[in-house]
Design goal:
Layout lengths: L21 H16 L10 H15 L5 H23 L5 E2 L4 E2 L3 H10 L14 H8 L17 H6 L12 H4 L8 H15 L11 H9 L9 H9 L3 H9 L3 H14 L7
Antiparallel strand pairs: 1-2
InterPro entries: LIMYB, Myb/SANT-like_dom
Pfam families: Myb_DNA-bind_3 (PF12776)
Protein name: Myb/SANT-like domain-containing protein
């Protein structure tokens, strides 16, 4: 008898939830680029053989028993983020500088752009990870997918051994993780949010301890946030501060939690703890 599946169409009960670390994401991108270079993406989608090769290699290299659907969902999510990023840097008045890899748009220009393109809020303080590789992956040009773009067979075991599993106690500030610089008004932004949290949270329920564990369980149950995504990792950072945990758990609707995370993320990256 086949494994039991929920009637809602969600993941099978025995299916491992995908956790996308930066290393695993880059490894997945490299495997996709390799398949493109081998002609397994004749159009806009990978062939069945291409997906099989990626699935087998990813399982061997990471030990993660992800399904093809999970890898395809990650492909779709990654492509969505790339499209948002590509549109952002192609918008003239946002003044993207590819040399310094920074935007020179004013605060007002950012506010106006995000109002019309809310998904771009995640890139206000940091750039898209592996943007160059994603250009090759989704631009439709196979000629860029050479051995300089992805790890070779001999490099992969080393990379797999060096995979870093980031724990709650070792989460880095976003600007440190991607090599960016903190926003100029970051400290003022955080002071303002923390001061608002004092009045925003009224008599927290006694059944909640507002622990990091409670917040992560709530975050994992939020379907609109993919585990390992930029918003997910940002949430782990801010969960290190109790004030943010209290606000997050007191927000009743999942959509409100996601909107709050994205708004805070667009304001500034998290500051290092003292």
């Amino acid at each position: 008898m086949g494994s039991y599946q929920r009637t809602s169409g969600k993941r099978k009960l025995d299916e491992v939830k995908a956790h996308w670390t930066p290393d695993n994401r880059e490894m997945f991108i490299d495997l996709c680029l390799e398949q493109i270079s081998q002609g397994n993406k004749p159009g806009t989608h990978l062939t069945r053989e291409g997906w099989k090769n990626i699935l087998d290699s990813f399982r061997t290299m990471t030990g993660q028993n992800y399904s093809r659907i999970q890898l395809k969902n990650h492909w779709d999510m990654t492509k969505k983020h790339w499209k948002v990023w590509h549109k952002l840097i192609s918008t003239e008045h946002m003044k993207w500088n590819p040399v310094t890899r920074t935007f020179r748009a004013s605060r007002e220009e950012w506010d106006e752009y995000i109002l019309a393109n809310p998904d771009a809020a995640q890139f206000r303080c940091k750039e898209l990870l592996f943007a160059d590789k994603l250009d090759s992956l989704f631009s439709g040009s196979a000629e860029h997918c050479n051995h300089n773009n992805y790890a070779t067979e001999t490099e992969r075991p080393t990379r797999a051994r060096k995979r870093q599993h980031v724990s709650i106690n070792t989460v880095l500030p976003v600007e440190e993780a991607v090599g960016g610089k903190p926003h100029s008004n970051a400290e003022r932004c955080y002071d303002a949010v923390e001061s608002r949290s004092i009045t925003a949270v009224q008599s927290p329920p006694s059944k909640l301890s507002y622990s990091i564990e409670e917040c992560i369980k709530c975050l994992d149950s939020t379907e609109d946030v993919e585990e390992g995504s930029e918003v997910y990792l940002f949430a782990l950072d801010i969960f290190l501060k109790k004030e943010y945990r209290e606000i997050f758990l007191n927000l009743k609707k999942s959509s409100t939690r996601v909107a709050w995370l994205q708004r805070l993320q667009s304001c500034c990256p998290p500051l290092p703890l003292d």
